[in-house]
Amino acid sequence: MAKLTSRPDRLIGIYRADGGLIGELRYLAGHYLRGEHCSLCDITHAGLGRKRAWDTAVAQLGIPFTLLHRNEMDADLAAFVADRVACVVAVDSNGFRMLLQDADLTACDGEVSALFDRLRALTSP
Predict the structure, then answer these.
(1) What is the pLDDT of residue 18?
(2) What b/e readout covers 16-53, taking b as 16+ CB neighbours within 10 angstroms?
(3) Where in the chain are the domains?
(4) Strand 10-15 relative to strand 45-46: parallel, antiparallel, unpaired?
């Protein structure tokens, strides 16, 4: 992905999974029974909880970072993202910009530090 020319106002990570009890159960069934996964989930979560390293890295980044399930996006964000989940989107006064796509997240191999190294490289002035 191309380096941003200005620091984004915020980042949004979008899971390839739906939120809510039914969405979580569907994800778990797909993960454990069919080997399906979400590359962003692999980075942010271990077992059933969020990784402590994730919260630490978000705090150190200095850019607000929101995580959403695909069914939690507003209409504008959903139209921009379309079927490109899992992903990380940068938001600024010009709108949305795709920062990292599923292949980029998969390349992080579930490592929080690998994702944040990529984010710092793309968002630093």
Answers:
(1) 80
(2) bbeeeeebeeebeeeeeeeeebbbbbbbbbeeeeebee
(3) 10-123
(4) unpaired
The pTM score is 0.87
The CATH number fitting domain 10-123, selected from 3.40.30, 1.10.10, 3.40.50, 2.40.10: 3.40.30
Nearest in space to 15 (alpha carbons), one of 53, 68, 75: 68
How far apart (Å, rounded) are the C-alpha atoms in residues 116 and 122? 10
- Distance (Å, whole) CA 79 – CA 73: 9
Q: By three-state DSSP, how is residue 69 classified? A: strand
- Distance from C-alpha of 12 to C-alpha of 21, rounded to nearest angstrom: 21
What is the mean pLDDT for each group of 10 consecutive residues in the chain (125 residues)? 84 86 62 71 87 96 95 96 96 95 97 96 83
- Looking from the CA of 78 toward its CB, the CA atoms found within 13 Å total 8
